[in-house]
Backbone:
């Protein structure tokens, strides 16, 4: 018997809770995804029909389009702006550190509360339109969330407001891990700022970039709260996200089998994207 | 002169940019703050004006709303916190001790098994849990939510603790075992106290995760936590802005106050998992 080994008994509570409430439900979802179960009545096996249906489902197609669009736009803006902000706040004076703390506030708030505030801002009788009226720009007054394009832009803005501070902090931590000597050496060599950024900063913060991209991707694909509160998927079904559609099919339309198939497909998609991102960045990592 | 201008200009531009950003982050918070203290009709006629003199109509309307009692929501959310956060620490720190201090195939598999949970879109578990709960006559409510949240904390919490325990020298445990201490005793008396920084991270991450979660209490029985509570109090189509801002004040202010007191811990707790991974 070796003394330094910890017994599996230590892990049993976690294994049980995790298995019963996460792993087993996922297995059940997998089984349900091959059925046409509607919540009541018998469970009928229908093979891969649910998965084939995904490709023919027009409203889901819109949801996928919305999810991808919102994810990609947020990902790009949050990463570019987040890195830029991190570079600007990467110093120690008092004002900068106050601003930094301030930028992070939205990330600790619940997305439901955040979405309601922004709903009040974008509403037809809301803050922006009221201000436009007061300053005499009545002709600019519109219902921002009454069409798909406008609503998606609003959703993207809210998402950025919610998470930008987080991306800034991730990049800030990455920037602070870059050895200062490299910049000093570059200065001696008379290297300009742009070259410094491309050849020192960017390669050395790869791990931070990887995390930011990964988090943006995973959270983007799981988006639900903000859409639920701000537009409730509307107008029509035009601003639904994938998770919103899954919840609608599973809990409002009682199509448990199909909803499970969608959730399984989403899980697979997230797993595949995660592996792609990890692979992509592994080749670029600098130690 | 020219030389100085060249040096000062970027500084000014930087400051203007940072202050504009601050404004972008500030306005929504400012709106909650000022509009919760205004008479209802003023909220949308002059949303940006200061509440002078302050009026407590909207706060009163929140406090007097019996069917959407804000203290009942606090109570529910706090109950979840009080159970999930400590239970998660106890279960997962022990599990991580096994993961970090055992190199068997089983342990390696468990590490992968738990880590895979980080990628799970949680929407996948609600239908199966609802199905099983109905068949076993388990009612929706706080106890079921506690169990679901506890399971949800496993991947991140074990990931953090495992990495942290690996940095603790094994010699400490060996010394204890020579003295005849059992593994369980060694873990709680010697190792666990050394994990405090990690425990702080985990408390903040899991605590905020539970407090802010919307989907789980919404779909698992519409339990009125603070998030589901304000959602059902306001509803998807309400335009009673005065009441909305009142509820938002109650939702947002406690978290902001705690954040301002513990900013370092919050920022570390929410980003360290990402940066040390």
Residues:
């Amino acid at each position: 018997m070796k003394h330094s080994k910890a017994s599996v008994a230590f892990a049993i509570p976690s294994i049980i809770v995790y298995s019963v409430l996460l792993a087993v439900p996922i297995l059940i979802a997998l089984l349900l995804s091959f059925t046409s179960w509607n919540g009541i009545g018998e469970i009928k096996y229908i093979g891969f029909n649910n998965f084939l249906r995904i490709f023919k489902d027009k409203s889901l197609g819109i949801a996928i389009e919305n999810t991808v669009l919102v994810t990609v736009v947020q990902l790009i803006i949050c990463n570019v702006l987040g890195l830029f902000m991190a570079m600007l706040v990467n110093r120690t004076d008092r004002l900068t550190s106050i601003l930094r703390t301030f930028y992070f506030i939205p990330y600790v708030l619940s997305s439901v509360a955040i979405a309601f505030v922004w709903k009040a801002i974008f509403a037809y009788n809301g803050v922006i339109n009221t201000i436009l009226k007061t300053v005499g720009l009545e002709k600019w007054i519109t219902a921002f969330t009454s069409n798909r394009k406008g609503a998606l832009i609003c959703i993207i803005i809210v998402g950025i407001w919610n998470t930008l501070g987080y991306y800034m902090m991730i990049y800030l931590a990455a920037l602070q891990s870059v050895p200062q000597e490299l910049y000093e050496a570059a200065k001696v060599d008379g290297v300009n700022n742009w070259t410094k950024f491309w050849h020192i900063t960017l390669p050395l913060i790869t791990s931070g970039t990887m995390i930011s991209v990964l988090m943006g991707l995973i959270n983007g694909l799981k988006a639900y709260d903000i859409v639920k509160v701000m537009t409730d998927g509307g107008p029509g079904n035009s601003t639904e996200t994938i998770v919103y559609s899954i919840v609608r099919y599973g809990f409002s339309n009682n199509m448990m089998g199909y909803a499970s198939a969608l959730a399984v497909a989403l899980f697979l998609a997230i797993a595949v994207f995660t592996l792609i991102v990890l692979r992509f960045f592994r080749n670029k990592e600098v130690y | 002169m020219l030389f100085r201008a060249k040096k000062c200009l970027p500084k000014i531009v930087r400051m203007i940019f940072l202050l504009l950003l601050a404004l972008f982050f500030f306005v929504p918070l400012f709106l909650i703050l000022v509009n919760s203290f205004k008479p209802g009709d003023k909220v949308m006629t002059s949303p940006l004006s200061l509440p002078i003199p302050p009026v407590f109509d909207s706060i009163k309307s929140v406090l007097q709303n019996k069917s959407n009692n804000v203290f009942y929501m606090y109570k529910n959310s706090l109950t979840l916190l009080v159970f999930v956060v400590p239970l998660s620490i106890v279960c997962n720190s022990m599990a991580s001790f096994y993961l970090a201090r055992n190199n068997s195939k089983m342990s390696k598999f468990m590490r992968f098994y738990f880590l895979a949970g980080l990628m799970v879109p949680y929407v996948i578990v609600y239908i199966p849990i609802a199905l099983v709960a109905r068949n076993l006559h388990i009612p929706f409510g706080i106890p079921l939510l506690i169990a679901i949240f506890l399971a949800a904390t496993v991947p991140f919490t074990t990931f953090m603790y495992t990495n942290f325990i690996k940095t603790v020298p094994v010699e400490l445990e060996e010394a204890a075992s020579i003295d005849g201490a059992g593994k369980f005793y060694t873990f709680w008396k010697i190792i666990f106290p050394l994990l405090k920084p990690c425990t702080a991270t985990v408390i903040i991450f899991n605590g905020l995760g539970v407090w802010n979660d919307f989907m789980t209490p919404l779909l698992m029985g519409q339990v009125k936590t603070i998030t589901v509570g304000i959602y059902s109090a306001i509803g998807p189509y309400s335009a009673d802005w005065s009441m909305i801002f009142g509820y938002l004040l109650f939702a947002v202010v406690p978290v902001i106050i705690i954040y301002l007191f513990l900013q370092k811990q919050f920022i570390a707790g929410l980003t360290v998992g990402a940066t040390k991974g």
